[in-house]
Design a protein that fits this description.
Elements (H helix, E strand, L loop, with lengths): L4 E8 L2 E7 L14 E8 L2 E7 L8 H10 L4 E6 L5 H5 L7 E4 L5 H10 L10 E6 L9 H9 L9 E3 L5 E3 L1
Parallel strand pairs: 4-5, 4-7, 5-6
Antiparallel strand pairs: 1-2, 1-3, 8-9
Length: 171
């Protein structure tokens, strides 16, 4: 994945000029008399592949809430392993880049695989989140979690871990 995208905004003489950068920075010439402020933000681009399932072919309210909160920090692509009516998918449309429902009988990894094959701009993202609808929440703001984990030098982390019989991360 590529490095973080950098946004610099320069505000001066009641006008705001923003340049979105991928490589380098092209700064408009400013005279020494201009008052300006430079705001520099490192924005982590997160991709979330979200797997869903419902025996009743519905999206529960807690899943809508979870997707709403997660969409504040990531671009969400959703796939449910069931035949869900389009009306159900409309519940999450405001929070997703893509939402699909099809019975494939491959569980979470099947849904993530389907979504992975539909995304053409993977290099636009810095982080990948694999999530599913088995988590209830979030009960606390996600901002604190993401800020904390950005400071930790690990390649993989999870909100939940299981140490019963063997250690593994939960999605």
């Amino acid at each position: 994945m590529t490095g973080r995208q950098l946004i610099r905004c320069v505000a001066y003489t009641r006008q705001i000029h923003c340049t979105f950068l991928s490589n380098g920075f092209n700064f408009q010439s400013l005279s020494s008399s201009d008052f300006f402020i430079v705001l520099e933000l490192n924005m982590t681009r997160r991709l979330c592949l979200f797997a869903g399932y419902s025996k009743q072919n519905i999206i529960e309210d807690y899943v809508v809430y979870y997707l709403k909160k997660l969409s504040e920090y990531a671009d969400i692509y959703y796939c449910a392993d069931c035949d869900m009516p389009k009306e159900e998918l409309l519940k999450i449309k405001p929070y997703t880049k893509l939402c699909l429902a099809q019975r494939h009988k491959k569980y979470d990894f099947g849904s993530w695989g389907i979504l992975y094959n539909k995304i053409f701009n993977l290099t636009d993202y810095d982080e990948l989140i694999l999530a599913n609808d088995s988590m209830f929440g979030p009960l606390y703001p996600l901002e604190n979690i993401f800020k904390k984990m950005e400071k930790v030098n690990v390649s993989t982390w999870s909100l939940c871990a299981n140490k019963f019989m063997m250690s593994f991360l939960l999605s």
